[in-house]
Specification:
Helices cover about 50% and strands about 10% of the residues. The chain is an alpha/beta fold. Strand 2 (about 35), helix 2 (about 55-65) and strand 3 form a beta-alpha-beta unit. The longest helix is centred in the N-terminal third of the chain and has 19 residues, at about 15-30. The radius of gyration is 18 Å and the shape is globular. It starts with a strand and ends with a helix. InterPro entries: P-loop_NTPase (IPR027417).
Length: about 240
């Protein structure tokens, strides 16, 4: 079983991935299954998370060509910001890949991208709004390709920040893990207590764009990322 988390940067994709991984590990422990670390692909890999190479489509395709990946007692976790290959989309449609997708309002993602570049700039220029707008436009196209390619579970940033137990219950149901509500709560409580396992997800202010952007800037980002905007509007807050 390959579980793949796709999300544009700064959409809580790392947090959603960490939550999914914790719940699947609990399931595998109960059924006597195992989590695979496919070192045979010959690339960097750490604790069930592709560090960089999951953004190369051939990495996922290599896993799909491994017959062991079809076993329900084996789990492999993949997190990527890249677009899908045709083989990956075919695997989503026929159930060989179980796909989770994170999303967020594009203007809020833009602000977080600028913040991130400021933290790691080390004297170099901070990304401008124009630069991150181009990045978000590309991510919007990739998001649509994954989302329209086959069955998936959509996870929005606001729910991750404010209703994590609800998200955990949805992941449990989507992946047919069979965990009890109490078990789901236990795993999420562990994540909440250990920030190193929960990625660098910041549960700070949601919908920050309204205080930090002009209406014209927000409208521009909504225009270049229509699918992210559509998902945000359709999601009950």
């Amino acid at each position: 079983m390959i579980i793949l988390c796709y999300g544009p940067p700064k959409t809580a994709s790392s947090a959603a991935f960490s939550m999914m991984r914790a719940l699947v590990r609990r399931h595998m422990k109960q059924i006597g299954g195992r989590v695979a670390k496919p070192d045979h692909i010959g690339r960097r890999y750490a604790d069930g998370l592709f560090v960089t190479v999951a953004d190369l489509p051939e990495t996922i395709d290599t896993l799909l060509n491994d017959p062991d990946m079809a076993s329900p007692e084996l789990a492999v976790f993949v997190k990527t910001h890249a677009g899908p290959s045709p083989q990956a989309l075919e695997a989503v449609r026929d159930g060989r890949i179980r796909l989770l997708i994170s999303h967020r309002h594009p203007a809020d993602s833009a602000l977080s991208l600028i913040d991130s570049s400021r933290k790691i700039s080390e004297g170099t220029a901070v990304k401008t709004l124009d630069e991150v707008t181009h990045q978000i436009a590309w991510s919007d196209r990739m998001l649509r390709q994954w989302a329209e390619g086959g069955p998936n579970l959509m996870i929005d940033f606001v729910s991750m920040a404010t209703r994590p137990y609800e998200v955990g219950a949805r992941i449990n149901a989507f992946l047919d893990l069979g965990l009890t509500p109490e078990q789901v709560h236990e795993e999420i409580d562990r994540l909440e207590a250990d920030k190193t396992r929960y990625g660098k997800f910041n549960k700070g202010k949601v919908d920050r764009r309204n205080d930090e952007m002009s209406p014209d800037e927000i409208a521009r980002l909504e225009q270049v990322a229509p699918y992210m905007t559509e998902l945000y509007v359709a999601n009950p807050l």
